[in-house]
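quick one before i forget lol
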Amino acid sequence: MGRVIGFELNSQEPEKAAKFYSTVFGWEIADPHWDYREVSTGKNEMNGGIAKGPNDYPHGTRIQIEVNSIDTAISKAKSCGAMIVRDKMEFDHFFLAYLVDPTGLGFALIQKK
């Protein structure tokens, strides 16, 4: 595993961002759930979401990388210099963690249940 499966757009004005991307690119954007709006960019395309950026990542884009074992990936990333921003969180169908690589780029790890 290790393939990019999605993206997250973080904004302090998620409603405005959602309207922009929907209008300009025709993306279908769902109503917010957990302050996160799922985004469909088109049939068989990469999808993602728009969220109100948290204090630790108020603006920017993060890729979502699918892994077989989130615990193993977190451990390996830490040993290579990554910083944990949000440790493993559990959701209905997946586990999610946010990290920053040694150069300062933010990314998410996802393990499906």
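fyi The two ends are 14 Å apart (CA to CA).
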